[in-house]
C-alpha cells in the first residue's frame, strides 16, 4: 500500500517531487506509525464490512479501526464479534484485494485472545488492537493479553492505546496518570504503534462539545491535556511515541457563527473556487485548521469517522518542497558541528542543532507521504484526489 496510490502513476509524477513509498503491514513499526494517516473508524456491526474495507482502501484509506466499543450498543457486542469473524473470512477469500492496516477496538482484555482464536488463519489480515480508556491500571491487562495472543498466533500484533480517561483530564491526577501510562507503554514499547487521543471523552467530563468552527485547541481544558500528553509521551529524545490527533466530528454545517477559515486566493489561483465552497459546506475548514494545529503541536495522523475526512488529512500530511529542502540542508553530514544557515528559499534561518529533530521527523513523514512538487500545494493535492 502507499499514500495516494489510488492516483494514476502519471498524476503522482506530476504532483510529487518525491513520491510516497510503498509499505506493507510487515514494514518496520517506525514506518507504520508515521504512515497511519487518517485512521477511519467503522462500527463492527456493518453487514457489508468487507466490501466497505475494500472500497475505502480503493479511495486512499491506509488504516481502519473496526470498533466493538463506543460506536455500538452494549447489547450488540456478541453479534458484532461474530460479524467480524465472518467479514475477515470474506476478506481472506479475496486474494489480491488491496487492504488497509486493520485494527480492532475492543472493550476488555479477554476479547483479544478470544478474537485471535476465532479468527484462526485469518488473523494474518489483522495488524493489532485499539485499547480504550488506557491507564496504567487498565492498560497492563490489555497489553499482557496482546502479548499472549501474539505468541499463540505467531503474528506480530500492535497496540494503539486510547488516552481518554478522566484521570488524564483532572489536574490533581494528571501528572501521576501520565507517568503511569509512560511506565506501561515503555515496558511494552515494541508493541505500541501509536497513542491515540480521545478528546470526545475529555469533553464529556465537563459536558462540553466543540462547535464546527472551533478546534480542540480552542477548548482550553482539552488543549492543556494535549500539551501535557505530548510533553510526557511525545518527546523527540528517543523516549517518545507517535501521538495521533483527535477525532473531527462534523461532516456538514447547518449554520455558521464565525467567518470561514479558508482563504480565497489559493483556490482562485488553481481555479478551484467550487472546491472551496464544498469544503466550507462540509465543515472542512475547521478540520483543516485542526490538522494544521495537530502538526504544530507534535501530533501525526488523525482519528476519522467519515470517509470525506481522509483525503484532506492526507493532503495536509504531504511534506512541502520547502520543508523538505530545509530538512535536507539541516541534516547534511557537513552540518554535524552545528551553525546557522539561510534556507534555500531565502526566507528563514535554519539553525542546525535546534532544528535537527524537526528535520528528522520531516524526512520520516516525507518517506510515507511524499514530497510535493516545487509549485504544488495542498489545493492541487486535494483536487487531484477528489477527481478519482
UniProtKB/TrEMBL annotation:
Coiled coil: none annotated. InterPro entries: C-C_Bond_Lyase-like, Citrate_lyase_beta/mcl1/mcl2, Pyrv/PenolPyrv_kinase-like_dom, Pyrv_kinase-like_dom_sf. One of its GO terms (molecular function) is catalytic activity. Keywords: Magnesium, Metal-binding. Its cofactor is Mg(2+). SUPFAM superfamilies: Phosphoenolpyruvate/pyruvate domain. GO terms for biological process: oxaloacetate metabolic process. Pfam families: C-C_Bond_Lyase. It comes from the Bacteria. Mg(2+) binds at residues 172, 201. This is ATP/GTP-binding protein.
Amino acid at each position: 500500500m502507499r499514500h495516494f496510490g489510488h492516483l494514476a502513476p502519471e498524476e503522482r509524477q506530476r504532483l510529487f517531487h518525491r513520491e510516497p513509498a510503498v509499505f506493507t503491514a510487515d514494514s518496520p513499526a517506525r514506518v507504520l506509525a508515521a504512515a497511519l494517516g487518517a485512521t477511519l473508524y467503522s462500527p463492527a456491526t456493518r453487514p457489508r464490512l468487507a466490501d466497505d474495507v475494500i472500497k475505502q482502501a480503493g479511495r486512499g484509506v491506509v488504516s481502519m479501526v473496526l470498533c466493538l466499543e463506543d460506536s455500538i450498543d452494549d447489547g450488540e457486542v456478541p453479534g458484532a464479534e461474530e460479524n467480524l469473524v465472518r467479514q475477515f473470512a470474506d476478506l481472506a477469500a479475496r486474494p489480491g484485494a488491496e487492504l488497509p492496516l486493520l485494527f480492532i477496538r475492543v472493550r476488555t482484555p479477554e476479547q483479544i485472545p478470544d478474537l485471535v482464536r476465532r479468527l484462526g488463519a485469518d488473523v494474518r489480515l489483522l495488524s493489532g488492537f485499539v485499547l480504550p480508556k488506557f491507564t496504567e491500571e487498565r492498560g497492563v491487562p490489555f497489553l499482557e493479553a496482546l502479548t499472549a495472543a501474539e505468541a499463540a498466533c505467531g503474528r506480530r500484533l500492535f497496540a494503539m492505546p486510547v488516552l481518554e480517561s478522566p484521570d488524564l483530564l483532572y489536574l490533581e491526577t494528571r501528572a501521576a496518570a501520565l507517568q503511569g501510562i509512560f511506565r506501561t507503554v515503555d515496558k511494552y514499547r515494541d508493541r505500541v504503534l501509536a497513542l491515540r487521543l480521545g478528546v470526545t471523552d475529555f469533553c464529556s467530563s465537563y459536558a462540553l462539545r466543540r462547535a464546527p468552527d472551533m478546534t480542540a485547541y480552542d477548548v482550553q481544558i482539552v488543549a492543556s491535556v494535549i500539551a501535557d500528553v505530548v510533553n510526557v509521551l511525545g518527546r523527540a529524545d528517543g523516549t517518545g511515541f507517535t501521538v495521533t490527533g483527535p477525532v473531527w466530528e462534523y461532516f456538514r454545517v447547518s449554520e455558521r457563527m464565525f467567518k470561514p477559515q479558508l482563504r480565497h486566493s489559493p483556490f482562485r489561483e488553481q481555479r478551484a473556487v467550487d472546491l472551496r465552497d464544498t469544503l466550507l459546506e462540509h465543515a472542512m475548514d475547521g478540520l483543516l485548521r485542526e490538522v494544521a494545529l495537530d502538526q504544530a503541536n507534535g501530533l501525526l495522523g488523525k482519528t476519522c469517522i467519515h470517509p470525506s475526512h481522509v483525503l484532506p488529512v492526507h493532503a495536509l500530511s504531504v511534506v512541502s518542497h520547502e520543508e523538505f529542502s530545509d530538512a535536507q540542508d539541516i541534516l547534511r553530514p557537513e552540518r554535524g558541528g552545528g551553525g546557522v544557515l539561510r534556507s534555500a528559499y531565502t526566507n528563514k534561518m535554519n539553525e542546525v542543532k535546534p532544528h535537527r529533530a524537526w528535520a528528522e521527523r520531516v524526512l520520516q513523514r516525507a518517506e510515507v507521504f511524499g514530497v510535493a512538487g516545487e509549485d504544488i500545494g495542498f489545493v492541487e493535492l486535494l483536487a487531484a484526489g477528489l477527481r478519482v
